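Running this now, will post back.
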Amino acid sequence: MKQYLRQLPPVHELQKDKRFTGFLNEFRLTAEQATRFIQQELRDLREEVLSGQLAFAPSVENFTNVIFGNASQKARKWNDDRLMRVINATGTVLHTNLGRSRLSERAVAHVTKAARNYSNLEYQVEEGKRGSRHDIIEDLLREVTGAEAAMVVNNNAAAVFLILSALAKNKEVVVSRGQLVEIGGSFRISSIMEESGARLVEVGTTNKTHLADYENALTEETAMMMKVHTSNFLITGFTETVDTAVLAELKRRHAGIVFYEDLGSGALYDFKKYGIGDEPLVQKVIAAGADLVSFSGDKLLGGPQAGIIAGKKELIDRLKKHQLARVLRVDKLTFAALEETLKAYVIGEAAAMELPTVRDVIRTPEEIRLQAEAFIAEMEAKTSAYRLYLKESTSQVGGGTMPGVELPTFMAAISHIQLSAQELAAKLRDCRPAIISRIQDERVCLDFRTIEEPELAEMVEGFMAIEQKNKAGY
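Update: finished.
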């Protein structure tokens, strides 16, 4: 064993090897970083020798080859993108784990331009003086929502927190018991309210809340009535809620109380005309009399992560001046992406179809079927290692929106002659780009609702690479 250990090359000798210089250049490492990779491999090999688990004949040459080979693999992995591109073959349009909305090409181009250059983020070009980032896209937000004023923070949870902190701290906020939602990651409306300093007053029951419940709860301590759109769950059967217009009328009879509606998903596009879901439109909620609304930018809106607040100018001005507004503000890249996304809604139907989220939600089963059939035909022409067939199924909108809505779709159901569905799915995730699939009935299923046309060739390449490695014993 000591003899084997003596054959391990010292670090200074490995640093003299020409492969060390190549290692530095290939992976853009400093000498110090490269040395750490080498030292880790030496430690691992020493442990293998001492434990008697060395898998090859010990020699200086073999040790050196293994060290540089393993170090290169680890350096390559270290050098890979942490935030990496994946192909979403799950069919879930707003997949929270996969980044929710994809941006339109126009939005991507505008983000790139904003990232590469200086901008007028807080500068009034015409006047030559300091400006406010709140002004950048407020006109677009007013136009698409019909509100008097608007502002942007970094997500909708932040919007809720800012509104409650600025307008209801140490005061009461009346909320229906059936609307005390958890919005994901254990973040609850009640907890956010507690952190904001507002005092929660629950009214009604889980399934039924009446106008009288709100009326009876209003006191001199009431600062706000808050309505929460239950976008991530559905209660059916013996239920009743109070409409926005009715609560707006109640608010008008009680001066000084703010009526705020948290819409969550933030639909500016009317998916109902395609028979999809029953999401309230932001524009209609504002028109019905809500003082303030808030909603997400990266859900049904189809833009970047953001929390958008729209409503009465007097209230928006108070929010803009609150200290939390600076804490929760967004950067120039978010504004750039949001600007182009909002312009699509202003321009009209054809432009809205350029937003991947809108387009993917309303895609027809026929479009999806043709794409799935093309993929199956190409796979069958290239290899006999997979068994493929077309399968009817349903997709989800996802992202905590449109609960219970199932979108008809087509999938390619795939099995391998040797690999299990779980093994094949794992190997697909190991492709670059990673292919994220579903497993149903012991088959890997690819839902083409969320797959772009250029991604078809990449997926075929991924499946072929898996088969080549499988034949080689990897």
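The longest strand covers residues 386-395. More later if anyone needs it.
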